[in-house]
């Protein structure tokens, strides 16, 4: 997929305020400081489409972007640790939950995992919650340039093993680095395939009507 245009649309405090859209929508989420904004900028070939901050918990709204005038990219608040009050953490949790469960045109949620770490319970709890609610998602292990190939594979294998203790089938898994641009083509191609399959299904449904 070639990214021709990537435009910021607006930020919204909750899903009910988000724009109504029929475009396929792909949201990105992860623990605070997992490299989400850097990944989004890398995917869209921009330097500052998503705001990068050294302060965990910087993303506090649902940020919408329009890609190629064809599909939506959404930057969600991070879950887990953030230097904010308990009240704000509760607010972020509500924002995330309501968006994921209520956004009708959400096609896929990309869950970002820090590749430098062994499986974190908060990440496992989150993907299990997604599974319980039948939310389609894929995993992206980030910051692969900061870890050896052996450690990377060991951490991925450990995460897979934890999931396989309760899951029969695992989601699609990607690895990425905003520095080396690892994973960019694979992730965009995955989105492209979903978009094309959706168009085919829509055409087939239209022909039957």
CATH architecture, please? 3-Layer(aba) Sandwich
Give the proportion of residues in helices: 25-40%
| Computed Rg | 17 Å
User: CATH homologous superfamily - what is it?
Assistant: P-loop containing nucleotide triphosphate hydrolases
CATH class descriptor: Alpha Beta
N- to C-terminal distance: 31 Å
Low-confidence stretches: none
For the record, the count of structural domains works out to 1
CATH fold naming: Rossmann fold
Strand composition percent: 15-25%
Q: If helices are DSSP runs of H or I spanning 4 or more residues, what is the number of helices? A: 5
What is the string of helix and strand elements?
Answer: EEHEEHEHEHEH
Q: Give the overall form.
A: globular
Specify the structural class.
alpha/beta
Number of strands: 7
Spatial sequence of strands, sheet with the most strands: 1-3-4-2-5-6-7
Detailed description of the structure:
This protein has one domain (6-208): 3-Layer(aba) Sandwich (Rossmann fold), CATH 3.40.50. The protein has 209 residues and is α/β, with parallel strands linked by helices. Strand 3 and strand 4 form a beta hairpin. The protein has helices at residues 36-44, 86-102, 121-132, 149-164, 184-208; strands spanning 6-12, 25-30, 62-67, 71-75, 106-114, 137-142, 173-175. The chain contains 5 helices and 7 strands. It is globular. The chain has a 7-stranded mixed sheet with strand order 1-3-4-2-5-6-7, with helices on both faces. The model has no long low-confidence stretch (mean pLDDT 88).
């Amino acid at each position: 997929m070639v990214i021709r245009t990537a435009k910021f649309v607006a930020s919204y405090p909750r899903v009910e305020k988000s724009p109504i859209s029929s475009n396929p929508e792909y949201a990105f989420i992860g623990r605070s400081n997992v490299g989400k904004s850097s990944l989004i900028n890398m995917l869209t070939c921009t330097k500052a489409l998503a705001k990068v901050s050294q302060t965990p918990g910087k993303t506090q709204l649902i940020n919408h972007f329009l890609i190629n005038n064809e599909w939506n990219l959404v930057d969600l608040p991070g879950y887990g640790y953030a230097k904010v009050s308990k009240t704000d953490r509760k607010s972020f949790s509500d924002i995330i939950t309501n968006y994921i469960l209520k956004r009708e045109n959400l096609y896929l949620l990309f869950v970002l995992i820090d590749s430098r770490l062994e499986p974190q319970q908060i990440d496992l709890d989150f993907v299990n919650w997604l599974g319980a609610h039948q939310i389609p998602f894929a995993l992206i292990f980030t910051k692969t340039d900061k870890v050896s190939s052996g450690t990377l594979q060991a951490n991925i294998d450990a995460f897979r093993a934890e999931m396989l203790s309760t899951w029969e089938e695992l989601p699609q898994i990607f690895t990425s680095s905003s520095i080396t641009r690892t994973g960019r083509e694979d992730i965009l191609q995955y989105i492209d395939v979903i978009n094309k399959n959706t168009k085919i299904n829509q055409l087939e449904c239209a022909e039957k009507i």
